Amino acid sequence: MGWTGLHREKGITNEEFFRKEFSRVGDEIVFHAHGTSGNVFYVAWEDTKQNPGAITASVILTSWSHKEYWNFNYKEISESGLPTEAYPPLKVLDALTETDNEYALIWRERARKYHERRALSRNLKPGDRVTLMNKVKFRSGLEQGTFIVARVPARGGRTVVRLSNGINTFLIPNWRDRVKEVERGWAKA
Question: Is this prediction's pTM over 0.85?
Answer without folding.
Answer: no
